[in-house]
Amino acid sequence: MDIEYRYTQDFEQRQLQDLFLSVQWSSGQYPDKLQVAMKNSDCVISAWHGDTLVGLINALSDGVMTAYFHYLLVHPEYQAKGVGKQLASLALDKYNDYARKVLIAYDKEVGFYQGLGFEIGTGKTPMFVTFLTT
User: Which pTM value belongs to this model?
Assistant: First the structure.
């Protein structure tokens, strides 16, 4: 399987919608917002199999100290093949000189991120205010 990694922030709404819904993330219901979110990210690294978007990671950053990795997702057909690990590695390399690289992991993914060098923040609790669909 030949996967190409690209640094781009330009995606068609349908590409984002298909990828996000493939992993059952509700944000896939808002492809217009996802498209703007990618354009407004500091960096987006995407994985492509031919013309098909199969994964991506995006980062929000203050430009010098902290990079926050908001999304890391890989289409289920491409999971467990090194795509997510490569996306994360490329992002970590880009922000190598930053003091802090941050993300919020789903419990079932903690081991994956620990394998990349992330640690569980003791005494810290992620907190959210999220809009809900009706």
Answer: 0.92
